Amino acid sequence: MAVRACGLIIYRRLQSAPSSKVTDGIEYLLLQTSYGTHHWTPPKGHVDAGEDDLQTAFRETQEEAGLQASQLTLIEGYKKELHYPAHGKPKTVVYWLAEVKDCNAEIKLSEEHQAFQWLKLEDACKFAEYEDMQATLKEAHEFLCSKK
Ligand code: AMP
């Protein structure tokens, strides 16, 4: 059976110039792992016994980025599932999309990550490196653009 993990694609909206599109001011939060090849990923982690997927996504975001559920707005209508092999086992990762209410909210990393960045879509895709993660970020961005 596949290992199951859940997480949140977190974004913030910067104050944009009046003439620019609202989505121009969107930045995505990526964390750099302190393990393995130090890849960049949204906060996510394994589902604990007795927890549902969304609870896991919020708990992992709190543990890995220091953001509480009360600091976030879950965006209805977006959910994405990724499947890839990790450490020789199939892994499923489910992501939701959430906006941080205060764009200056403090990010507090756990020992699992060594750095974080807020990145515009293009740069987020460069750092995210895996094609399925890049496609996930692009889809999330298109989803946000389509809502405006
Ligand atoms: P993670 O799931 O981020 O904890 O990473 C576990 C392993 O899977 C690491 O070796 C990563 O480099 C690899 N990995 C992470 N994300 C992806 C992905 N989207 N596609 C393929 N491999 C990945």
TrEMBL record:
A Pfam family assignment: NUDIX
GO molecular function, one term: bis(5'-nucleosyl)-tetraphosphatase (asymmetrical) activity
SUPFAM superfamilies cross-referenced by the UniProt entry: Nudix
Gene3D superfamilies linked: Nucleoside Triphosphate Pyrophosphohydrolase (3.90.79.10)
Keywords, sorted A to Z: Hydrolase, Nucleotide-binding
The enzyme's E.C. designation: 3.6.1.17
CC cofactor: a divalent metal cation
Class of this enzyme: hydrolase
Reactions this protein catalyses: P(1),P(4)-bis(5'-guanosyl) tetraphosphate + H2O = GMP + GTP + 2 H(+); a 5'-end CoA-ribonucleoside in mRNA + H2O = a 5'-end phospho-adenosine-phospho-ribonucleoside in mRNA + (R)-4'-phosphopantetheine + 2 H(+); a 5'-end FAD-phospho-ribonucleoside in mRNA + H2O = a 5'-end phospho-adenosine-phospho-ribonucleoside in mRNA + FMN + 2 H(+)
Domain Nudix hydrolase: residue ranges: 1-141
Biological processes annotated in GO: AMP biosynthetic process; ATP biosynthetic process
Function noted in UniProt: Catalyzes the asymmetric hydrolysis of diadenosine 5',5'''-P1,P4-tetraphosphate (Ap4A) to yield AMP and ATP. Exhibits decapping activity towards FAD-capped RNAs and dpCoA-capped RNAs in vitro.
PANTHER family xref list: BIS(5'-NUCLEOSYL)-TETRAPHOSPHATASE [ASYMMETRICAL], DIADENOSINE 5,5-P1,P4-TETRAPHOSPHATE PYROPHOSPHOHYDROLASE MUTT
Similarity field: Belongs to the Nudix hydrolase family.
Name this polypeptide is given: Bis(5'-nucleosyl)-tetraphosphatase [asymmetrical]
Gene: Nudt2
